[in-house]
Amino acid sequence: MQARHCSGRLLRCVVCTPSDFTGRALLAVILVTSTAGAQTASKPAAKHVRATRANEMTLAGLRPGRDTLARAAEANKEFGSGKELPGEQTAWFDVCRDVSLTIDSNKAKNIEVMRVAAWGGSTADCAGVRPGPWKTGHGLRVGDLAAKVAELYGKPDSRSPSTKGGQPLELWYYAFDWAGADVPQVMEVLCTRETEGKPGRVVEITLAGPSL
Q1: Cβ atoms of 67 and 137 closer than 8 Å
Q2: How are beta strands 111-118 and 83-85 bridged, if at all?
Q3: Following DSSP, what letter does each residue of 75-130 receive, concatenated?
Q4: Which of 97, 103, 130, 204 could cross-link with 190 by S-S, CB 3.0 to 4.6 Å?
């Protein structure tokens, strides 16, 4: 606001004529406005940097801790009825995109943990396939660049080496307890490691409900 005030004062002085001032008063005005202009010009523009920090509520359009296994089955019926696995798990497989969705539920069939991962078990040849529906609420998908994780959610609470199936990976861990006790509390993202100039990519996304 000070710079604008100074600019306005300069504009008013431009339209003044020397006859409006005594010689001494005119010199004083010129010195003051010149100094103010120099200070304004030398002051660097303020940079507005807003740190990205976002929690996640959903994965594959479902909210762990809130939605049920029945709702998951309805939402994913295009991928079949789901395969029951040991430990109260149910999985769906997108053979065209070679991605799996695994849900951990409790005895009441409420969703506790959701996991979308690169499957690696499909041999289907699906031409012109579009991106599937299994993404986070902020739009993160398996196959995205690892850099996109930080763009969407900010700096993780931790990054640590990990492996899966013998493949060296990196685990990005986010805790969302700062967003409240009734929202998903943890998100883990597994990414391939950057090697030989090749950027890391997301291979697995896990979102856990508040009950854990």
Answers
A1: no
A2: unpaired
A3: HTGGG-S-EEETTTEEEEEETTTTEEEEEEE-TT-BEEEEEEEE--------TTPP
A4: 204
- Give the largest CA-CA distance in the chain: 95
- Three-class DSSP category at 58: coil
What are the backbone dihedrals phi and psi of residue 152, each rounded to the nearest 5 degrees, phi first? -85, -40
Per-residue exposure over 108-146, b if at least 16 CB sit within 10 Å of its own CB, e if not: eebbbbbbbbbbeeeeeeeeeeeebebbbbeebbbebeb
Please give the Cα distance from 61 to 111 (Å, whole number).
12
- Are 173 and 161 in contact, with CB atoms under 8 Å apart? no
In order along its 212 residues, the chain shows pLDDT tens digits of 444 433 343 333 333 344 443 444 433 443 444 444 444 444 444 443 335 789 999 999 999 999 999 999 999 999 999 999 999 999 999 999 999 999 999 999 999 999 999 998 888 888 888 999 999 999 999 999 999 999 999 999 999 999 998 999 999 999 999 999 999 999 999 999 998 889 999 999 999 999 76
C-alpha distance from residue 23 to each of 6, 33, 147 (Å): 22, 16, 64
Q: Kind and range of the H or E element at 205?
A: strand 202-208
CA gap 202, 189 in Å, rounded: 7
Paired tokens of 69: 């296994």
